[in-house]
């Protein structure tokens, strides 16, 4: 396909690279032009100096940008330049509200907008193993789904516009609770004088097992957090969750508490630490990063 890709950061860059390797014609745009040039030179993808240039004649425009306002801006700039019947696929984590707004705007101009946030983090993007949760026109998604498999292991259509973003909120709620429980478990093991490696071996094959335990227990115990999904990003996502809960009436007391804990991590200097740095609150406050 002829593809435009806007947002070549730690997630978007590897995703766009997988598309080039799969044989697609990809034009990459980034607000920092130098980042797009470096990506272009490293992948043989085409450098685009503007959103309009990336979108020109594209059958598929993929977004991996920062927030609601970025999505509004890029979508508005791109729509007049896309091919007739083109699909805009937004991997940004945003509000469900903006997804619905952009879907309506795209439909007015004969295009489709799919909200398609992802789970799997930077490692998933690098390894082409992301999980995609999508909302919007099922037929439009089916048209581009084979293309998405260049960097995804699973794509799930969740319903009408906004449903992908709502599902990503469910994902972040679940992660927040698990990570806090894991941080307390590691802390308790340390205070109780247990060998944390032995404790992991004892419990990781039972009911307590999780992806977070398998991938974060050891680094939590070592006080290492200089990697992974940043606290700043998680707080942005949890802000979207809590805003949506105020609208739909969901009761998210634990999520609100964990968001508060992440604000404490930020105040400790951990804005860019991995989300597992909740453990730092319970240690000596000086992670060994």
Describe what you observe in this structure.
The chain is an alpha/beta fold and 289 residues long. It folds into two domains: 2-159, 3-Layer(aba) Sandwich (Rossmann fold), CATH 3.40.50; 166-282, N-(1-d-carboxylethyl)-l-norvaline Dehydrogenase, domain 2, CATH 1.10.1040. 52% of the residues lie in helices and 14% in strands. The chain has twelve helices and nine strands. It has a six-stranded parallel β-sheet, sandwiched between helices. The protein has a three-stranded mixed β-sheet with strand order 7-8-9. Helix 8 crosses helix 10 (211-222), helix 8 packs across helix 11 and helix 11 packs antiparallel against helix 12. The longest helix has 29 residues, at 163-191. The radius of gyration is 20 Å and the shape is globular. The relative contact order is 0.10.
Descriptive labels:
289 residues, alpha/beta, Rossmann fold, 14% strand
Major beta sheet, specifics? Answer: 6 strands, parallel
Number of separate structural domains: 2
**Number of helical regions:** 12
SSE order:
EHEHEHEHEHEEHEHEHHHHH
Tell me the overall shape.
globular
The name of the CATH superfamily of the largest domain reads NAD(P)-binding Rossmann-like Domain
**Which second-level CATH architecture of the largest domain applies?**
3-Layer(aba) Sandwich
Oligomeric description of these chains: single chain
Low-confidence stretches: none
**Strand segment tally:** 9
How far the N terminus sits from the C terminus, by CA atoms, comes to 42 Å
Determine the structural class based on helices, strands and strand pairing: alpha/beta
What is the CATH third-level topology name of the largest domain?
Rossmann fold
Q: pLDDT average, as an integer? A: 97
CATH class of the largest domain: Alpha Beta
In the sheet with the most strands, the strands line up as 3-2-1-4-5-6
């Amino acid at each position: 396909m002829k593809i435009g890709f806007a947002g070549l950061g730690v997630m978007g860059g590897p995703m766009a690279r997988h598309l080039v390797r799969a044989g697609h014609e990809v034009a990459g745009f980034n607000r920092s032009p130098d980042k797009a040039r470096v990506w272009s030179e490293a992948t043989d993808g085409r450098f685009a100096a503007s959103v309009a240039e990336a979108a020109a004649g594209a059958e598929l425009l993929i977004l991996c940008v920062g927030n609601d306002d970025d999505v509004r801006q890029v979508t508005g700039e791109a729509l007049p330049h896309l091919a007739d019947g083109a699909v805009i696929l937004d991997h940004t984590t945003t509000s469900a509200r903006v997804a619905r707004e952009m879907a309506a705007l795209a439909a007015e101009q004969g295009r489709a907008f799919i909200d398609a946030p992802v789970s799997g983090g930077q490692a998933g993007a690098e390894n082409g193993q992301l999980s995609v949760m999508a909302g919007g026109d099922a037929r439009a998604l089916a048209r581009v789904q084979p293309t998405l498999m260049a960097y995804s292991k699973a794509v799930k259509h969740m319903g009408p516009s906004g449903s992908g973003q709502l599902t990503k909120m469910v994902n972040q709620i679940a992660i927040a609770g698990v990570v806090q429980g894991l941080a307390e478990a590691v802390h308790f093991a340390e205070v109780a004088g247990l060998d944390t490696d032995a404790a992991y071996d004892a419990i990781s094959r039972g009911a307590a097992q999780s992806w977070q335990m398998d991938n974060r227990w050891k680094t939590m115990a070592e006080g290492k957090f200089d990697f992974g999904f940043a606290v700043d990003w998680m707080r942005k996502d949890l802000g979207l969750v809590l805003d949506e809960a105020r609208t739909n009436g969901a009761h998210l007391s634990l999520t609100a508490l964990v968001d508060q804990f992440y604000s404490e991590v930020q105040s400790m200097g951990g804005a860019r630490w991995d989300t597992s740095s909740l453990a730092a609150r319970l240690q000596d406050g000086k992670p060994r990063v």
